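Lecture notes, structural biology module. Today: joint structure prediction for complexes of two components.
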Amino acid sequence: MQHVLDLLFGYHEGEPMLFSSGTFWALFLLFLPLYALLSTRRNRTMMLAFVLLFSLFFYYKSSGLFVGLLAATSVVDWGLSQVIARSSSRAMRRACVGVSLVFSLGILGYFKYANFFMMNLSAIVGSNFQPLELVLPVGISFYTFQSVSYIIDVYKGTIAPTRRWLDYAFFLSFFPALVAGPIVRAKDFLGQIAEHRPASRHDLYYGFWLVLVGVVKKAIVADYIAQYNDLIFQSPTGYNAFETLMGIIGYTMQIYCDFSGYSDMAIGLALVMGFRLNENFNFPYKSQNLTDFWRRWHISLSTWLRDYVYIPLGGNRKGTARTYVNNMATMLVGGLWHGAAWKFVFWGGMHGAGLAVHKAAKPHLGAWSDVWPVRALSWLVTMVFVACLWVFFRADSWGDSWLVLRQVFVGEWPGMAGVSAFASARMLWLALMVLIISAHALPSDWRMRAGEAFVRSRLWVKFLIFVIIVQAVLQLQGEDVAPFIYFQF
Amino acid sequence: MRHYRELWLILAGGFALFFVLSVFDGIALTEDYELRSAGFAKAVFGGREAVAEVPEHVEEIAEEAKVKDVPTDTTSQTILFIGDSMLDGLSPRMADYCLQNGHKLVSYRWYSSSTSKWGAQGTEFLRGILAQYKPTYVFICLGANELFVSKPAEKCGPAVERILESLGRTPYVWIGPPNWKPDTGINDVIASKSAPGCFFLSNGMEFERKKDGAHPTAASAVEWLDSVMRWMPHNCAHPIRMEVPQKPLPAKAPGQIIIKLRNPNE
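The predicted structure, tokenised, for the full assembly:
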């Protein structure tokens, strides 16, 4: 029994609590009845306090004592936001924004980028540098961006600061979105806290449906196809060209299912609690160009970068050349946000270059862009570009990235016998790949319609679907459960 | 409130069902396929991890088969590494060893394979790849799919002999299966058929397992192969140079590392 209590309530370093884990669901079973009791307008403060405590506990389970940093960030930000709102002195208001940014971004910079910058600096000056033993607090990039947007929005007068620290701490630590997004914007969320309404029956079951969709994407599809993809990236030159190509396509699908699966679970859990989070993915692999891709992929990050980096830099208001520069700078920040390594900077820079090429080419395409062969070609070029850049995202090193890509061109092509051997050995891997690619080929509203059907279904049908999905997860759990890829950011 | 109660019932009902199923620790649906359990009962009741017991006779066989220190062959080798899905974890590490020590590696996985498969219809296949790649050294990792075979001496013994006959005079090391439960005798069979100093007993080692409870994790597989390489210099009949890989590894020559997959239905 002690083991169970330790599993449920203890902190285990390196084992963040995943939404798809039994531990989380056991705790959620305890959480739900109390939340339901408190989820009335009359008990709003109690509900906020209860969810805040649960969120802090959730973060403790994932990051241990770093929960103190989260609490400190909320206290500092909230205090400064009060000063910003009340002060009539522009200098004071700007100073408060500066202090908040230094504090939030300083913590992020120290934990995430200190070693990266020191190592590069030492390489430049030729000194020896022993990397600091730093552990990156889970989800710090996500809640830091939430904190930055809140302070800037209060400064600009876009939103009013919360009257109580409790409301702000609730927003910053809201557990469904705490460790891997979506990045929740205060302007979308604070109003929901103020006028909290209990979840309707539709919200509750649609939210549950989204959670189940997320579990299928993450724990069934992404975790299973990752087993093969990992083999390819572990031995970049060990497999033939066809197998390597399959590994690249596999990772392209894996990262989508992993991250969008997490987002679905987060959005679904929030909806079960009566809160609406904005969509984070909108079938990104349907995109026919990079601009469209970034409107569909990690929407909460791309809109955040647009509003707090691209537009403040001048956006497209300062001429064509400056637009390209701003675009590139924004994508470089986006790349660096994903990780403190040159491969992420390269990844962001290449996306910036790709966006610039699309922007430059768009006026010349004119009516051609609507002809289906051009659309098909555009889609193919976009997907090849995106998939190749994911290699840099996944590979262990810069050198390995090139080895993987090179292997597709210089590796041995196995012929039909080899392809047949692959298909036989990887039947389920291929089936899951076909499933996820087919999902992109369906009309965009199919998922919503399926969700509505789930909401309308009888209780036993919902139970059966839940049981089948959980058993499917257990059956396919043949390997280590990979933590969510975006946990590391 | 009523809706929350309904949702809670779905979740709690599901948990109760999976808890009950987990008491049985895997229900066989067919001969080869079982319903996996969530492990809740084990967590609550503190069920013991299945630890493989090493029967005394296999240790005796291994002890008798010990060879005196043989000088290590430091020349470059062409290594053929064949086996079942255990090669998923072992091959990448073997590739590192080969890069570090200047050997060539051809790794051939055959998922769900066994000594019976390699030794029956696979012998021709094995002879084919031996002829094609002309290895100077062979590593084999087979037996994990035959841990629970009844009468392994009858069912697997002849197949093990045929595999070893196929190798001819090529030196080899047979890496025994990483038992997760006591076997019915496959380790005995392989140990007794292998030449002295050619069988590495993995049974009894501690492994960190993947969720399937059988395959060692990637990190554990690295330690597993490292153990084999540490064992080689003083216990193996044909030790070859296998220094521990150091990062960065030497650059790979074209064709130095080949990892192949065999059609499981062949």
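Point to remember: Confidence is low (pLDDT under 50) at residues 479-484 of chain A.
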